[in-house]
Amino acid sequence: KETATPCTDSQYPETPNNGYGYGVINALKAVTSVMTGISDIKGQVSEDAEDTVPPTFNHIPIKEAYAGFEQKLKIDVQDNISVKTVELQYRNNPSDEWTTVAAQRESGDIQSGSYEAIIPADRVAGANLSYRWRIVDFGKNEVTSDIYTILVNSQVGYFNDFETDITGWEILGAPEWQWGKPTTGPMAAASGEKVFATNLEGTYSENQVMALISPKIVLPKEHAYLQFKNWYDIEENYAIAKVGVQIDGNDYFTSVAKYAGTKTGGYSNEEIDISEYAGKKVSIYFVFMSGTSASNNHQGWFIDDVKLTDKSAALGNTSVLSNGPKEQIRLKDLPAASDGRSVLSNSPKQQVINSVQANTEMARLPLSATVTIVENGRSTKTNPQDGSYSFKVKEGAYTLRAEKYGYYPQDHKVQVAANQVLENTNITMAPIPKGTLTGKITNAQTGKPVKNAKLYLIEDAAVAPVTTDAEGNYSLTAYEGKYTVQVIAEDYFDEKVTVDINKENVTHDIQQKPFINYSGEIGYDDGTAEDTVAQFEPGGGYAVRMSLPAGETRAIVTSGLFMFGTKWPTPGGKTFKVAVYDASGKDGAPGKMIAGPFNATTPREEGKWTVVDLSAKRIVVTGDYYMVLIQDQPALLSPGISLDKTTVPTGRSWWFVNGGPFNLANKDFGNIMIRSTVKLEALAPVITSPVENPYVNNENVTIKGMAAPGMDVQIFSGDKDIANGKTNDDGSFSIDAVLQEGVNILKAKTIAELGSTPYSTETRVIVDKASPVLEITSPQNIANINDQVITVTGTAKDDYLDYVDVNGTSADIDSNGYWTVKLMSKEGENVINVVARDKAGNETAKSITVNVKYSIREIKNIMPSSDVILKANSTVKVEFDSEPGLKKAVFSINTPFNGIASTAFVPTASLSSFEVVMTEVKDANGTGTGHYKGYWTAPKNLTLNGAQIAVNVEDMYGNSLSSTAAGKLYVNCKPIPKPVPDKTAPSIPLVSKLTYTGISGKAEIGSKVYAKAGKVIIGSSVVNSKGIYSITFKSQKVGTIINVYAVDKSGNVGAAKKVVIKDSTPPAIPSVKSLTNTKVTGKAEPGAKVYVKKGKEIIGSSTANSKGIYTVSYKKQKVGTVLYVYAKDKAGNTGKAKKVVVKK
Question: I need a surface site. Which of 23, 569, 992, 1066 has the fewest CB within 10 A?
């Protein structure tokens, strides 16, 4: 409070008070009050060098001025080190001394700035006025310009039509008045082409304050009139335009006219009588102020042809304003603009003055550096004009570190005592040497130079990027060090390399991989608009989510396409902004802006797309992204984006208001008509055919696949280019090629001017034109066999054998080409067709015929049919009938074991094994009749008692058949009487037990008992010595009829015993669900009868229904009575009982 400046007013006359407290803090007093013991460090930061380069300048001379008007002059000055002084020197006569005025820096810095100086109005007099510029730099290099002559116009008054020169006019406020050609409001100037306007291209903004101030002018001595032309559209009660006059030296202007409402028609001629200011130096003010608008769609104020004169031009078409209400207005009291700045918030002008230097040496140059006290981290920047710096510190030891880009850091240690001023604490810095990196950028595939490639030093953004020339050469200069060089070029992948730059020249050639790409368009509308929308406020807009085609993970956005309506809004506008967002928001909503916003315009042509070229922006996306339209004007002054409302909504359309979040449009919105074009990476082609069958028998093949649409595809066999073609719009291709015989390794790549994609996955295709070599080794053609299964074997030789087919059956083939297959034969002619096929479809076919006969059908009419008695040397004739053409027909005489009656002859194996060949009787044509005959003569000393005559035959197929003659042979003996055969059938078997799986009982001893179900014998058993049999069989169903019969050893079949399988399984114990003293309910076997028993008495019963549910009622029983519930099935089987006790 001791350092505060007291504040009072009429409400708070005393201090301290409740309005201002102790007052406003005086910062200087507050700081100095606690600075006891504080010391100063002062010095300069410089480098060892000398400033020998003089400054340069650019100036457009003024050729004419109005007498009595102050004249502003401007000049642009540049120096390699620092501009110290810029002065304007002027005089009215050549004999006069030069009058010098210091120029003020309006913009820029000490090395390059724009400066302004003013010749006072009272010195703009006489016929001519001469001036020149004097410029001095840090090294005291002085430059003086030529002498320029201004023609002074002595005519009374002032005029400016704003066409070419607005020198002396000052613009204040935010936003500022605009000077140029109007494209809104009156759409033209009152004269010529240019005007001053609140906005040349749209409506004025809300909450703005802007002032247009004329040069200072000495008015005529008797009468003075302000004349100008204007057009205005100003919202009444929300905005106002004022014209004012400021007398030189005053801090306020006096309002002399004001405007609001809408001016219809063209420009109006305005005249204001300001004769009360006659003879005085004044400035004219045009001030425009707006508040929060109700509609925010007004065009503002347009001013042209401003004139100050001593003669009135008041006619019928001129508005005369001279007696309106007047008020004094200070600019500092005007309301703040929308960005919070007052109308006087411009950056203060800097006056260039000579700086005082301590120990300035011509061999040293000042540096604009940062000096840091290492111990506490405090930093300050040096004065760029002289390199000076200062710190206030407490006593102690400190390390001062000077740092500047392009120089080695330099430390300087100091010891400071209390209340000491330590001057000349100078630090000399040494520059880091520079080196030059040169090289050539070439296409990594073609070796051709890459022109217009840009090279950046990642670690040093201060080094401007360089561009390669037509030969791909570059040269980049930077400070010594290790850097990452990034190379960027259109249609190439970015390349990064690490280099070391030193003071010697370094060469580094770089190969850049081409970005082989194709253009694609992404959109989700049908191209026809049904509606148009726009956001009410500027800053809002619309977006559409774009997805890359399947398989693509990266693309470069090249343009945005927008369909705008022409019928609404009215009048509408032609400007808008475009941005690109990623999809990193929640659930894929718009996230970060990755490019833009960029200014764009549209001609608004019906049914035509507006294309905004973004190719130079190098916008890389790696997934879904959003093309975004941002309005820069309110709805009625913006182009309205079109909607497709007939296509099914895709859920990709979004909208947002200024400052608000993105919102997904509802389905009624349709699809916003925004599209995008992209450059998509052309991936390696994919060959789809031939793939499944890589074997072909023709060298002419069609290779099909997929690649980037609309691009050239080259087909290779190994490293040899064999064919090429172009892909269709959908990316498919079909290319004819000629292959070589044998193995072809096919691959494809997409070709472009800059290079090609990687190869596709290799596809192996084999051209095989040779057919397999096929042999059938077994059976032989026209073979006669009697097998039901024919084993066919052979060989097949082929490098790419696929299969061997024999009558539709695939043969087994070993590694050596041997094959075999087994076929079921049929009697008669069997044609065997063998086909060997290789994987290319070449076939070799062979056939053989095999005759098959399974048996000899019969031997009949064997003679002798009755016993034959022979004596020695007697002959017996043997004959029979069978198939004609038998390969073999013989008979033999088989001696029975007990058939030898004479001890004089012992038969040997030769008698039983010898065969007598029989001959077939032929008919008159020599064709066999199938009747065969043969003869045998009985030798001496042989006795046979009932020898059998056996006949054996064999056909051409290997079938054989034997039979025996009914008549026996007796040699030198009589026949032994034959036993009487058993012809009595056995009795019907007795059945003692029958179950589901077996039957047993008694039958004739030694006979065989059979059990038969229908026509099927299901089991049998031999009766034992006790007459008992037992037969088991598979389980039979209840009700199955079984016939049991016996067959004795003589083959006599007895009568059958008929039995039926019955149910022998008792039912399960019934379940009890409910029990009362009068009934019981529950479940039992369906169809079974349920009984309730008390003691030995059955008190009730009931039959279970088809679902097994039963209810048994009985007379009322006492509580505690024990009851038994059981079931009896239809077969009479009785189940176990369930014990229950009556409880209620």
Answer: 992
Give the count of domains, the chain.
9
Examine the domain organization and report whether 496 and 546 are in the same domain: no
Residues 753 and 784 in one domain: no
Of residues 276, 167, 178, 165, the one with CA closest to residue 215? 167
Instruction: Confirm if 400 and 371 have CB atoms less than 8 A apart.
Output: yes
Which of 274, 309, 344 is the last residue in one of the domains?
Answer: 309
- Residue (of 250, 176, 259) closest to 216 by Cα position: 250
Residue 805 counted as domain residue: yes
Q: Are residues 546 and 568 in the same domain?
A: yes
Contacts for 977 with CB less than 8 Å, ≥ 6 apart: none
Q: Residues 205-221, buried b or exposed e (16+ Cβ, 10 A)? A: bebbbbbbbbbbbbbbe
Q: Per mean pLDDT, which range of 864-868, 1128-1132, 1138-1142 is the poorest? A: 1128-1132
pLDDT band at residue 124 under the 50/70/90 scheme: confident
Would the pLDDT of 342 be above 70? no
The answer to whether the CB of 836 falls within 8 A of the CB of 804 is yes
Residue 125's beta-bridge partner residues? Answer: none
Q: What is the CATH number of the domain that holds 930?
A: 2.60.40.10
User: What's the CATH code of the domain at 215?
Assistant: 2.60.120.200
pTM for this model (two decimals): 0.55
In angstroms, rounded to a whole number, what is the distance separating the alpha carbons of residues 986 and 1048? 6
Mean pLDDT of the chain: 89
Is residue 659 situated within a structural domain? Answer: yes
Residue 32's SS3 state is helix
CA distance linking residue 666 with residue 1059, whole number of Å: 84
- At 871, the amino acid letter reads K
Query: What was the pLDDT predicted at 3?
Result: 52
531 shares a domain with 506? no
Q: Which residue carries 């007291």 as its tokens?
A: 6
- Percent of the chain surpassing pLDDT 90: 73
pLDDT of residue 899: 41
Contacts of range 594-598, beta carbons closer than 8 Å, 24 or more positions apart = 594/619, 594/621, 594/625, 595/557, 595/619, 596/628, 596/630, 597/628, 597/630
Domain enclosing residue 848, as ranges: 773-852
* Bridge partners, 756 (sequence order): 751
Which residues lie closer than 8 Å to 735 by C-beta, 6 or more apart?
Answer: 702, 703, 704, 713, 715, 723, 724, 725
Question: What pLDDT was estimated at residue 204?
Answer: 87
Residues 845, 925: one domain? no
> CA-CA distance, 201 to 183, in Å (whole number)?
5
pLDDT (mean) for 299-304: 94
Q: Are residues 702 and 839 in the same domain?
A: no
CATH code of the domain in which 569 resides? 2.60.120
| Tokens linked to 384 | 């760029």
Q: Parallel, antiparallel, or unpaired: how do β-strands 268-273 and 225-234 relate?
A: antiparallel
Report strand pairing: 195-197 vs 178-180: antiparallel
Cα 653 from Cα 590, distance rounded (Å)? 11
- Report strand pairing: 99-102 vs 178-180: unpaired
Dihedral angle of Cα 381, 383, 386, 391, to the nearest 10 degrees: -60
Express each pLDDT in 824-883 by its tens digit: 999 999 999 999 999 999 999 999 999 999 999 999 999 999 999 999 999 999 999 999
Q: If you average pLDDT over residues 215-240, what whole number do you get?
A: 89
Based on the fold, state whether residues 287 and 191 are members of the same structural domain: yes
b/e map 1065-1083, b = 16+ CB within 10 Å? ebbeebebeebeeeebbbb
Letter string b/e over residues 396-413, b meaning 16 or more CB atoms within 10 A of that residue's CB: eebebbbebeebeebebe
- pLDDT tens digits for 588-646? 999 999 999 999 999 999 999 999 999 999 899 999 999 999 999 999 899 999 999 99
In this prediction, residue 27 carries a pLDDT of 52
